[in-house]
Amino acid sequence: MTNYPNNIPAKLEIIKASEIIPKEVRWLWYPYIPFGKVTLLQGDPGDGKSSVFRSCYLFSSRFNLKSCSSNCCFLIIPL
C-alpha cells in the first residue's frame, strides 16, 4: 500500500485477463468512435480533426446521446 499526500491509502488489485467479462460497446461512429471511451483524433494540420470533432459533438448533443453519466463527455486537449 502507498500513502498519497491526502493520506488515502491506495491498493493495487491484479486480475487475470481471463477473469475480465467482456461488455458490449455502443458506437457513435462504427468502428471508429465508441461511446464512453477514449478516442484520439490525430493527423496533420488541415486534415479536418476539428471538423470531425465538431460533427460528432453536434450530432450527439442534437440527438441527446449521452455517452456517460455527466452532461458532457467531450474533452479537447490541444497537443
What can you see in these coordinates?
- With 79 residues, this protein is of the alpha+beta class.
- Helix content is 18%, strand content 11%.
- The protein has one helix and four strands, in the order ββββα.
- The protein has one helix at 49-62, and strands at 2-3, 9-10, 27-29, 33-34.
- A two-stranded antiparallel ribbon has the order 1-2. Strands 3-4 form a two-stranded antiparallel ribbon.
- It is extended, with a radius of gyration of 18 Å.
- It starts with a strand and ends in a 17-residue tail after the last helix.
Reading the helices and strands in chain order gives EEEEH
The coarse silhouette is extended
How far is the first residue's CA from the last residue's CA? 34 Å
Q: Which regions contain 5 or more consecutive residues with pLDDT less than 50? A: 67-72
| C-alpha-based Rg, rounded | 18 Å
Identify the notable features of this structure and list them briefly.
about 80 residues, alpha+beta, two-stranded antiparallel ribbon, 4 strands, about 10% strand, extended
